[in-house]
Amino acid sequence: MQRLTQLKTWLTARLPGQDFELSPAxxxxxFRRYFRVRFADGSQSRIVMDAPPEHEDTxxxxxxxxxxxxxxxxxxxxxxxxxxxxxxxxxxxxxxxYLAALTPANAASLYADALGTLIAIQKASRPGVLPEYSxxxxxxxxxxxxEWYITRHKGVSLDERQHAALETVFDRILAVNxxxxxxxxxxDYHSRNLMYLADGANPGVIDFQDAVYGxxxxxxxxLFKDAYIHWEEDFTLDLLARYxxxxxxxxxxxxxxxxxxxxxxxxxxxxxxxxxxxxxxxLCHRDGKDGxxxxxxxxxxxxxxxxxxxxxxxPLLRLxxxxxxxxxxxxxxx
Length: 334
Hints:
InterPro entries: Aminoglycoside_PTrfase, Kinase-like_dom_sf
Number of domains: 2
Mean pLDDT: 94
CATH topology of the largest domain: Aminoglycoside 3'-phosphotransferase, Chain: A, domain 2
Helix content: 40-55%
Radius of gyration: 21 Å
CATH class of the largest domain: Alpha Beta
CATH superfamily of the largest domain: Aminoglycoside phosphotransferase (APH), C-terminal lobe
Order of helices and strands: HEEEHEEHHHHHEEEEHHHHH
Shape: globular
Number of strands: 9
Domain Aminoglycoside phosphotransferase: 22-248
Structural class: alpha+beta
GO molecular function: ATP binding; kinase activity
Largest sheet: 5 strands, antiparallel
Low-confidence stretches: none
Keywords: ATP-binding, Kinase, Nucleotide-binding, Transferase
């Protein structure tokens, strides 16, 4: 309550003479909170970010907002800032996410818009500006899986042989990931972080504060192997091919051969989904946020499908079968 009072005091000083009300705008998997600021006179609403400085730092968000905005992405406009207190007043991109707006009828168009924005961000890439998506960071993400998913969520203790097999396959995954061309990476470019805008300037891009400089296919894996919505593979493969063609034409450093590019994408998806399973388990067991458990089967399905396609991922598939066996479908004949 004290934090909310502090926020209202800060807003009042920046909105003199304006009557307003606050309402929750969105949930977040971190300590950040977002409120919608509605005005009594009916003027355009705003969003205020509350990022307690003992837990969050608004400066990375501000830096990436400028980078992505300069590249042509539709990011929230910063109207007022106070990094020391952890408050930002932003333009309001609405409350309709891609997840809520996507339908079979509009999916091709909305994803084309999302790819256009992603290409613009990638075209603006240069090293030394954002943190590197290093081997250490990628590996630290992978290690969330044995700690939080296998041990804590599934209640399984790996033996020495299983640990060794997991380490070996993690090394293989990282070798493929780190051999990719490098670009700016949003790191959570999916249907919950892309906003559907009624004026057609899609997508609005949010939640980019963890952006890095890393593997080119990472955001594509986030977008088309989305933890929150599933599309048939022939549909996403067509979009992926369209991206690859456009990226080559515009000079992005994609692989010359589509099959090599697709393999990078698949293996990047494996890294992401191993990480996401660990994160979802941690959100549940450490943070008390169990809403993500419903999305775990979709993530596991993506992971299993990729592992079945590549012999070098067989040890991971075998471990998944031991830790989290697939349900056996029973058929009856009469």
